[in-house]
Every structure is written in C-alpha cells, then in structure tokens.
Amino acid sequence: MNDNQTAAIAPPTAAEAPAQSPDRAKPAAESVPAAAPRRHGPAGRFLRDPIAVAAAAVLLLVIATGVCAGLLTEHGPNKAALDAVLADPSGTHPLGGDGSGRDVLSRLLYGSRTSLFAGAIATGVALLIGVPTGLAAGYVGGWWDALSSWVANLFLALPGVVVLLALVAVRGPGLVGSMVVLGVLTAAPVFRLVRGEVKRVRGEPYVDAARVAGLSDPRIMGRHILRVVRVPIITQASLIFGLALIIESGIAFLGLGEADRASWGAMLNDASVHVYDNAMLSVWPGAAITLTVLAVTLLGAGLRDAFEDAPKPPAATRRRRVRGPAREPAVRVDTGALLVVDGLEVAYPAPGGEAAVVDAVSLRVDRGEILGLVGESGCGKTQTALAVLRLLPVGGEIRSGRVMFDGRDLAALSERDVNALRGRRIGYIPQDPMSNLDPSFRIGSQLVEPLRAHLGLSRDAARRRALELLDRVGIADPARVFAAYPHQVSGGMAQRVLIAGAVAAEPDLLIADEPTTALDVTVQAEILDLLRSLRREHGMGMILVTHDLGVVADICDRVAVMYAGEIVETATSADLFARPAHPYSAALLAAIPDGAGARSRLPTIPDRVPSVHDRPSGCRFAPRCAYAAPGCAVHPEPTTHRDGAVRCVRVENEVIVWNR
Amino acid sequence: MTILGRRSVAALATAGLVVAAVAGCGGSNTSKGAGGKTLTLAAAADAASLDPAKTAGGNMLAYLQPLYDALTTVNPDQSVGPGLATAWTYTDPERRHLRMTLREGVTFSDGTPFDASVVKQNLDRMATSNGPSSFAVATVAGVTVTSPTEVELALKTPDPALLFNLGLVAGMMVGPKAFADANAQPVGTGPYILDTGHTTRGDRYTYTRNPRYRTPAAYPFDKVVIKAIPDTNARTTALLTGQADAGIGAPARMDAAKQAGLTVTRQPGQVTGLWLVDRDGKIAPPLKDARVRRAINHAVDGPGILKAIMAGVGTPTTQMFAAGSPAYDPELDRRYPYDPARAKQLLTEAGFPDGFKLSLPSENAFVPAIYPVLAEQLNQVGIKVEYTPVSTNQLSVQYFSGRFPAFMYVWGTTQNWIDANALLSPTAPTNPFKATDPVAVDLLARIAKASDADQGPLYRELNAHVVEQAWFAPLFRGETVMFSAKRIALSNKPGQTFFSLSDYKPAG
Amino acid sequence: MITFLTRRLISAVALLLVVSALTFFLMDLLPDPGRGILGVSATDEQLASKRRELGLDRPVVPRYLDWLWAALRGDLGTSWTTGLDVADSIGTKLPVTLSLTLTATVVCALFGIALGLFAAIRRGIVDRSVHVLAVAGFAIPGLWVGILLVALFAVRLDWLPATGYVPLAESPVDWARSLVLPVATIAVSGIAAIAQQTRNAVATVLERDYVRTLRSRGLPLRRVLLVHVLRNATPPALTVVGLQFIGLLGGALVIEQIFALPGLGSLAIGATSQSDVPTVQGVVLVSVCVVVSVNLVVDLATGVLDPKVGMR
C-alpha cells in the first residue's frame, strides 16, 4: 500500500497527513496548505491569535476587577444609602446608584466574583463527573457504558430549570447548591462528548500499539486518550462556563439567588423593576455578562485552535478575479485543438498570502485523443482538472492563464456560459463512485435531471434515454438501477452510472478523474474498455487524471507528468515509457516494483513532495533528484523535447541515460 | 391533546369575528363598546376558586362578591352591618352565644330558598373544608337551627372578629345543591351569576345579572367582567389603554394615568416593618430589653425608605393597627422618630455600646430593595445584620417556626381583633416565640368580652402598650393605588381599604 | 418502522416514569404546604387536618404510585393551592407557552435557515457575520435583551405592550402585538444559533462530491442548491430546530417572567414556590411529553428524508 510505504519513510505529522493520503475525495485537503511555514507550540500559536489574546485579556481584566474590587471602589457592594437610590452617575457614584441606593460600580466589580465563582463551580463539577465517567464508558464499554449512557440520557431529558427551582425551594436560595446542580446536569453532555471521542480514538492503531506494547489502561488513557479528548473538553468547558454565568444571572433574576451577594443577575433583577424610571441600570450588568461569556467562549475557541494546531478557516474574502498577464506560452496556442490550457495558475488563500497549487500549467487535448495526467498525490492534477471545469473547491481560484475550449476561454466566461458547456460539451467522471451520487435521490432522477435541463427532453423521453445510457454502460438491469437509491448499488455499478451521466449529452471533452481508482481490477478493465469504446463512437477528447501508470499505458495517447504544481514533462505514451526525459518521470517508472508490471499504482520515490510553502526556488524536483546539479538552482522553463516538452535544464545540454 | 381544551377551540372559532370587530371600532377597547352597562375590572390575581370554602379573602373577594352574599356586610369604615343576617345579639355576658336573625324571602340563583338550615350547612362546611378561610370560623363550636329564620352560634372562646369575618369569605352562603361543584357552577344569592360561556379560567370571568336578586338597583351594571392580570405593568397598561375600567395600578405610573384621564384613588394598605418576635430573648438575648427594641425603632428611617424606595406611596407609621380603626392613635406615630444618636444612646443604656449581631431572613419576593438599606441603617447604630436568604415558599414556615428572632414582614388586616390576636396572643401561630406580657394578656381578655362600644378605648390602650414596648418596628403603611376610567364613579370613604362591587357606579 | 416506533415509545415511557418519580420525590422534600394553603392564621389542628386531606401522612412511595395510576387514567389531580383541576390549568397555560415557543421557533427557523443558507453559499463577510452573531447570541443573556427591548419599544417609543398576554380569541392583533417583544428576545440568539448550524450543515453538503458532480452535469447552481443541497441539509437543520424548540421550553421560564406571560413557566415557578406538588408534577409531565414528541417528530421526519432508513 502506497500509504503505508510513505508512512514508513516519513512518519506524517498531524499536519502533513492529508497531503500524503491519496488525493481522492479531498481536493481541499490536498491543496490547501495545512501548516504555516514555521511551527510553534500551543502557547506560541495561541499568542499569534489576536482574538484569543484579546479574549484572555478581557477575562483577566474581569478576574482582576473581581480580585481588586476593594481597591477600585470605596463603596461596599451592599452598602446602601437612601440618597443614592436611583442616583444619576456622579463623582461619588461613577455609574450611579441602584434601586436600594447601592453603588452600581461597586456591585458590578464585586459581581464578577460571583459570576466567576459560579462558572468555576459548575464547570468543575461537570468536568469532574463527566470526564472520568465518559473515559470509563468509552474505554471499558460493556455494561458500564450502557448504564452510564442511560443515566446521561436521563439527565439530558430532565427539565433542568424545574430541578433548579425545586432545589431552591427545598434547600433555600444558595449559589453553590444551584451551581453544583447545574454542573451535575451539564455533566451529561460532557460525558457524551468524552465517551464519543474515546470510542473513536480507541480503535486507532497507536492505541492498539500502546496496548500491545504492554502499557496499562490508566497510562494509555492518561497518555494517549486524554490528549485527544482535551481539545473538545476545552471547548465544552468554555461553553459550560458561559452557560453557568447566564444561568446564575437567570436564577438571581427570578429572585432565587442570595439577596446579599452582589451578582450581575441580581443587578438585572433590580434593573427590571426600574425599567420605567431608570433603564440604564440594566446596561452595565448586561454588558458585563455578555462580555465575559463572549471572552470565555472565544478563549475556549482560541485554546482549541492552539492545541489542535488547526489552520484557521481560510479568510475566504471574495476577491474580484484578478488575472495576471499570461505567462509565456509553453505550448503554442492552437485553435485547432479541442482544449488548450495555457499558463494556468490555481491558488488558494493561505496564512500569509496565497498558495499556488497549480502553477503555469499548459496542456493540449485534441479531438479523439486521450491525455493522461499523472503525478503523485497532491501534485495538482485534480486541481487542474477541476479548474478546466471551473468547479474548484471553496477558496480556489484561477489566478491567471487561459483555458481555451473550442476557441473560447473558459477561465473568462461567465458562470452561466460555463454552465451551459458543462455536461453538454464537457463531461466529468469523478473518482469515488459512492460519494458522487446524491444519496437522497433515486439514480434515475439524477440522470434524468440534466437530460431534461440540457436536451429539453420530455420526462418520458429523458427516462428512455437514461435507460438506454444505463444499458450502454453495461448495466444488466437498467430498470432496477434506475429506480434504486445510490446506497442500493455496488461501487462498480455506481461508477458506470456516473459514466452514463457524464456521456449522456455526448460531450466533446471528457474529464475523468481517477475513474477506476476505487474499483477492483476486473471492473477497472471493463470501465477502461467502456471509455475506449466511447471515444471510438463519439470521437471524444479525454483527460484522464490518474496515478496509475498501468492505466496510462493501457489507454492514453499522450501523457503529462505533474510534479509540485507544474507539468514537468509531456510526451506520447510510447515515448514516456520507453525514454522518459525528466528525471522525475524516470523515477516514477523506476519505482514500479518488479513483478508488479505496468498495472500498478503510482510507485513511491524516496522523500516526499515539497509542500506548497517549501518549494525550492530552483527546480522543484532537485532535492529528490539523483541527477541534480548546480544549474538546477535556477527554475527551469519547459523546452520542446521530441513530440512534447520537458522542464529540466539538464535535458538540453546532456544526453542522460536515465536509469532505466 | 384534550388538555388544549375548549379555549383554543374557541380561539379558532371566534378569531374571524373578533378581527371584524376590531377592524370595525378601530381599537381593542371592548368595554366602551358595550354601552356603559358593562363594568370591566382588572384583578391583581387570578381567582383561586369560586367556592368560598376553597378561597382566601383579599384579592379573591372581587371574584366572589358578585356571586355570593355574606351573613354580614363589612362597611367602608370597617364596622359591620346587616347582610343575609339582619340582626344579631350575644345571648350571654361571656359573649359565647351569638343569635342571628336571617333575612326572609331570599332565594339562591337556582331557586333554592335561603334559610337557617342553609346557614348551618354552610358554616359547618366552611369549618371542615380545610380551606384558606376556615381559620375565620375556628372559634365556632357549633351551629344550632332554632327556627327557619334564626340560628345560634356557640363559640369556644369569645371572638370579636367573628361578625367581621362573617362579612367576608367565611360568611358567604353557597346554595346547598351546588356544594359539590361550587367552583365550576357557583350558586349564591348575590346580584350576579357566572356566565360560564364567556368565562375562561385564568383569564376572564363574566358575570350577568341574577334575575332573582332582591335589590338590583344597588348594582347598576348589567354585566361585570373581571380580567385576571397579575402582572402590575401589564395591568397598568390595560387600564391606561381602556381595556379595563378599574384596577390596582403601578404607583410609578400614577402621572401617566392622570395624563391619560384616569382617576387615581389611593387607599391605605399593609404595614411593612420588622417584627421583633423574640421579645423574651430566647435566641437573640439583646431583644429582651425594650430599650434595644426602641433603639431599633429609632435606627430605621421609615419615612426615608418610603420616600426613596417606595416612591412615597404610603404613610410612615409606628403602629401595626389600621389607620381609622378603633385601636389607631395618630399620636403614636410620633413616638419613634428616625434618630440614630438616640438609638445608640439606648443601646448603650441597655449594655450594648458596641451593638450586637442580629440574624435576619431576607427574601426576594416582597420588599427585596429594602433589605440592604435596613442592614445599613442598623449597622449605623452598631447592630450587624446577617441575612439568611429564604425562598418564598418557606417564608411562612421559617418565619413563624421560631428560626429567626426578627423578620421583615408585610402585614395587613383591617379588623383590630384579628390583628391583636394574631400579633399579640401567646397562642397565635403568628407569634412564634409565644412571647407576651401580663398587660397584653389582660387587655386581650377584657376586649374579648367587651361590648362593641367598650372595645375602642381598650384597643387604644393595647396599641399604646405595644408601641411603647416596641414589639414591632413598623416602617410605613403602604397604599394601594386604584386607576379607574372617568366613566366610573368610585365611592371611596376615608380609611376604606378595599372596594366592594357596590362602590362602582357609572359616572354622571 | 414499527420497531423504531416501538423502541422510541418504550424509551419515552421509561423516561416519563423516571423523571416523574424523581420530581415527585424531590418535591416531597419541600416544606409542608399547609401554611401556604391555609394562611399564617391557620391553627395546628387545621394544618394537621390539611396534611391528612392531602395524604401527606402516608409514605411517599404509595403516594407516587397513586399519582401515577391516576395520571395514567388521565387524571392529574387538583392543585393543592388553588383547588383547580391541574389538567385544566395546564390547558389554559399551555396555549400561552406554545404561542410563544412555536412562534419563536418558526421565526428563528425561517430567518436562521435563510441566513445560514446564504452564509454557506456566499461565505465571506456574511459567513463571518453569522459566526460572530452566533457567538454573541450565546453570550447575551436573553433577560437583558428582554429588558432592553421593553425599555426601548415599550417605554421609550411606546409602540408595543411591555408585558402581558392577550389570548388569540380576544384579539388576534393584540395577541400578535403581545408576542412581538418576547419572540424578538428569543430570536436574537435563536436566529444566530440556527443560522450557524444551518450554515455548517449546508457547508458540509456543499463540500460533498456529488454536489460538484451535479454541477459538472450542467445543472444550474440554483437548482443544485434548492433541490439537492437543501434536501440533504434538511435533516441536520431539522434536528437543530427541534433542539432549539426544546431549549425554548426551558428558556420560556425566564422570558415568561420578564414579559408576564401566564404560561407554563409562570405556573411552574408559582407551583414550586408554593409546594403545589400536583401542579408541578403535571407541568413536568406535560413538558417531558412535549420534549419526547418533538424528538420523535424530528426523528421520524429525518427517517422519512433518509432513504437508507427506508421508512417511506
């Protein structure tokens, strides 16, 4: 397995793992650079997050005002003076007086103690109960899991407010009691969260490995599992803390709090009485609660991000399309060709700028020609294919270059015009059959829908046509598949359905993204036969994205090899397999394990593809290249070579007998 | 879901009609549209039950008075006049046998004649009903029918409040055939009957004329609607917008009411103050000393609190008895002016120059804004207050079980005996430490047996004694503020503490 | 389908039993309700007699079983404090709470789902605003929003009634007016919460491969969004709306208190503070029933929408 081999060579860090997985179904993960150039510990990452730092600062401020309340105001929080009842702000009472003549500022400052205390109790109790029970339930399972889950569900269904009310009625008002009960009630979601995470992680190989290595259960829990669950716990804890503040204020508002404890909720209670004569009274405690809960929540999010090392969601600002000047065409623009891609650049927003995942890619497909687009995972071949369809994942953009289809630049067309071409003149076969059919709709309707939209067929005509298509792609019982839901058919069947959908309108160009990857070998061969015959019947041009050199050898007329976002070599299939011109192409071919024959997955070359940020300024393959020379420090431009082109400085000057 | 009940069905059925009606008159003023023959009242609480045996007095009276006559009538000046009983007399000097002569020719709205056996059945029922008004006939040992128009009540002890109480819920006569279901289908001898078709429990109660009523002229309205709007602000808004003709409004919005053309009528209400119940110093020894209790009276600024926190709606007082009642003495209100220096001096004389600690309950339902001020003012003279919060449902249990040596309470009845008995009698449930003194016991015994005319001076003597001994530290007597529409003339006599249905007349 | 329903019903019944028993035993710890019912002037004899009348001289377990047996027959008993039939008083309060919670849920769902959809499709500034609003909506206490709205729209501008409830039957216009501020109070956080969840649900669906494939077939974006994306994002959105509704039932307590709406929340507060066990039990029972039914409806709807469950 490709994955495991690479893993053995370079154990992936969490951040790099996505780039190493086969580039199926995860174009975003493949292309969006996952990590910032330099790595920091959680603390460093936290300090680089302005929102989290601001939230922490606000929270520290709240804590500080609570602790230093006595220094910040001369008034006691419960000291009432009749002449200060509903007093306007003044020198002695900067925020005025409340309905009992107490200093509003003082109560605001002292109130933060109550709020933080309340939050701490509720969060503490919830975690103390929820985390251990959740760990045990998830790790041990069995009757303990069943029992504790049942109890948790029960707690979730309890009318919490009534329980709190009843408690106050029984025990009398009390902050600690109410918050302990709130903690117990909110332990249930914590339990569920921890249990779920542990159950998920428990099956992971490294936990198994730890167990095989003889680590005791508590140590595994402490060392491996707790590390994994800490991030969701942090988030959950911050939510509970915020919730506790709000509930505390609600209890005090309902008049069930302790009368002589300064509390923001009690202040709101007092303010609500005076809504007719002093509406300002509610502003301070209300704002204090909001700000504190906001700070706690955002702090939780910041901590989560810092520990998770998660990339910030790309700042997906919607930019106006800026198209730079087209680069020097490497392939002559030939209006006679079906598709000419010229200097295509696709970029995604990334921390500190943009990352070009496809860089100066130029391609050409003639009518009736099958072009293979090969390369390792993450080299940008799927991105190139999607760019042609103008269906890049969120954030992806064509930054420059042209995509000339039948004389029109797809990159410059309006969405509406491109859409008119999709399906009708350009067909698309995705790689994973099961994830590319809408699970909620019957297969038939998914075929009929575009037919009616494109060809203007009647419902019956479209249905007949769809059944014909299903028959054409080799489905034995078209009527049954037509009426089935996607989950009711096999993967091979689904791939045939997708091919039927792609060729339904007899397009001129077919873009097939690893159409056989997910299928077993026999089905693969049948699908390739199908594509071949479709090409024969309709004279379709085709781009076949694959990392399977066997498929290339089998069906492609010409091949484009991609590496780190660039095309490094284009050649006829025969030339490439016989005499690869670029060291990378040669290495690919060389790495096919003996005996596996040509029909093998793209093999492994030592070391890994540089990430978008670590690309050398010169030849991108140079660090892995056995033939690297001083001249390779300059980024090579493609040069004509035989019937194609190659991007390597050494090809022009020396005839290298590549290692084949 | 049958519990959704008739109301939502009715809602759906009538929604269209009401839209049309609203569109037609351009507003939601239902009472004006009824041509002046309808009185719409906004009540401060929902009717707990329309069966007197299950109902307390106070706010509930408004719901019951249209339906039921009581044996006696409580006049605006708190004196007792004839009701279904036209005359009565105590047949023994001990005042333990009361003979009542009943009105003749009265029938219930279901046609059942009213007679002495009905009275016996009702009083027996009230005594055994375990209802909120049962306490009012607790002194009645038995009822004897001596003739169809005469009953005799035997009392366990003399009860100067009995005739007063028989003018309220405890004396309301329910038609015997309706005993089983008096809440849903009430039957009385009152001026109105319940229009169940236009009554929605929890929301509105509609009363129409009782065709069998003997003097309909005393009640000029053909229809009475009572809307239950417990929330003060909502009720005030309803009054300001004319959705109801009269009701208790929010004192803070008195000016708005006057601007809106409403009549604002103020009536004396309940007394807010500290009850220094541990007068024997069982759990708070300092309270045993009358000088300490007087010091507390001097230390709290009733007028200041009234003005600052209660918007001045009320009058400062130092006595628990109702203004205008026989026991009331305006001179006594000058006994304890706000004077912290004097309070400190009294504490020093009592041996507490540095004050002492006092454990008090606090609550959040009645007068929450006063507690911080009270603590601060007592602190000024050296008394350190420690509050224990008590939830609303535990107030009466905890306050009257002897857990606290003193507490803040809002108290108000209007009848002197009820007050005297509840506040001062060593056997009253509301006297948790059973504290008393010989003077009070003696006066209570003498009042119980005194004729109505002789009671007044004795009450005043008792009142003076209680104030002098500072068994309480009253802050102020609150006021209820009535907002009423201009089209309603509201008869209000000095000292009157609540309105009876007969007090409402059309204006002009 | 039948097994699914049966299992859900069994777990619902078990839940009702346990919750009702828990509240019953909890309420049994409350102080003697006699004083609250009979008033402070009641004598000890009257209190003892009241205890006997209410059956409080018997142990708690048989009393619970009696209550349960009666409840099973549809008899929730009569309130200890008002003597009213509990089912009747819930019947008069429930419409208020349902008016509030259903209207609020519908408003939150309509605006929230529309906003969430918009945010997921447009991303950018809308997306980030929804996220900020969702966090802020969580942080702002509803009761403060309520007070602010009352202060502004009722007191300052005098556009709407500050508090109170007008039954639909009395005046639909006033009924609607009486609900505007309470519903707005809930909507401040509710819309943002639903929008955020909908946005996430839609964004997840939008990243699905089949969406790209459908678009590669040349289907107009609008059609893909309105038919395929919406359809697949509906179950999670529905779940969120269901949770929101359940949350509102609890939150109605504070909202009803601010706006003096005579609903179940006010009934619960009043009954709890008066140790009125039959009423509290009734409210709890009805609330749990509503919660269970909402969950069931959401599950059924989700099941119907998911062809894999095969419930259609």
Question: Roughly what fraction of the amino acids of chain C lie in strands?
Answer: under 5%
Q: Any idea how many domains of chain A?
A: 3
Radius of gyration based on Cα positions of chain A: 32 Å
Compute the average pLDDT of chain A.
Answer: 76
Radius of gyration of chain C: 24 Å
- Apparent shape of chain A: elongated
Structural class of chain C: mainly alpha
Name the CATH architecture of the largest domain in chain A: Orthogonal Bundle
On the 0 to 100 scale, the average pLDDT of chain C is 81
Secondary-structure element string of chain C: HHHHHHHHHHHH
The tally of beta strands of chain C, per DSSP, is 0
CATH superfamily of the largest domain in chain A: MetI-like
Class of the domain at 89-275 in chain C in CATH? Mainly Alpha
- Strand count, sense and closure of the main sheet of chain C? none
CATH class of the largest domain in chain A: Mainly Alpha
Distance between the termini of chain C: 9 Å
- Describe the sheet with the most strands of chain A: 8 strands, mixed
Query: Strand percentage of chain A, roughly?
Result: 5-15%
Q: Tell how many strands the DSSP assignment of chain A holds.
A: 12
CA(first)-CA(last) distance of chain A:
23 Å
The CATH architecture category of the domain at 89-275 in chain C equals Orthogonal Bundle
